[in-house]
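ok so i was messing around last nite and threw this chain in just to see what happens. nothing serious, just curious
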Amino acid sequence: MNDNPRFVSTLTRNTLALILAGGRGTRLKNLTDWRAKPAVPFGGKFRIVDFTLSNCVNSGVRRIGVVTQYKAQSLIRHIQRGWSFLDGRFKEFVELLPAQQRTDEETWYQGTADAVFQNLDIIREHNPNYVLILGGDHIYKMDYGRILAEHAEKQADLTIACLEVPLKDASAFGVMAVDEDWRITGFTEKPAHPEPIPGKPGYALVSMGIYVFNAKLLYEQLILDHDLEDSSHDFGKDVIPRMVASSARVYAHRFQNSCVNMILDAPYWRDVGTVDAYWEANINLTTVTPDLNLYDEDWPIWTYQEQLPPAKFVFDDDHRRGQALDSMVSGGCIISGATIRCSLLFSNVQVREYSTIEDSVILPDVHIDKHVRLRRVIVEKGCRIPENTEIGFHPEQDKQRFHITDNGITLVVPEMLNQHVHHTR
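result:
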């Protein structure tokens, strides 16, 4: 199904993508104290939102609105710096849509449907045939051209991308039931007792929060939803169940039919919304054959490219050898007589002599002094780790200063070290 990497057509050109990027992502704890979840760094040089944006550009969907709300400054700055290469002369753009109380009521976005409703005038101005609604906070590679083609072929009113997940995890999603044509017959948002897929008792079919709407029908549904006082103005809780209950043609699209770079027939899709999941997805990139392919030239991940010198490793004495093993090290890093193992270092990280870093994720602009030992640690952007510090070896001691997850990952941010970093991260 995925031999041809792109499915660019008049369908993709007549589509407007809206990326809902206003969420805080509270389960990421201190990583979202100063930024929205889509702006959290990922994979050594990217931000989470880059994956959704790259999917749009690579799919030929090049009219994109990014809807922002919570602590959006670092996200806005990243998009302005890194995503201004689309050409307005060809009606290609990435447009920022901050919550600006555009409707009569003086409220911020009340839910996912309300976030789109409050931008209806802007959407109408672009006059798309289809509106592709996406989240900005998942890591995956998907050809949106394929879901658009399937949507048009089935003459659907709404198509929802879906994924099979273990039943025990399904309560975190919208769970759907489908008939043999993949038409959705039932949709329940975050049910306590999810229904399994017929014939696959351990799994449920869940929504990925990726929707293709016929534009005119979307306008009607949003206006209808806006006028209902008892609605929470959310796609998963209100709009979609209402459409499924009516006679609307609502279909499910299987993610494996549009996933790019399948790994052994399994599509890669990660919600890096907890500290443990975030650590695991980053560390997985350092393995010999990671689940996510960042090296595919046919489906590149685009981002803001800072101009940095190459990574540098210095000293070759016993106990003072600058080296990185089974690791990813980004531009601007200097490893000065230190050992890095199974770790991911973002840009501009400096590690001084006699230090060892294992199984750790070090965000940009971190300075690690001499004789430091870190194990299973995430270090936030801009931290300065003082000489002789040990983190990840004495959980009881670490708990008094840092955040430790159930899986034993330690999160370190400047405030925990009594340091103040004057930027939006």
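not much to say yet. Residues 13 and 61 are 6 Å apart (CA to CA).
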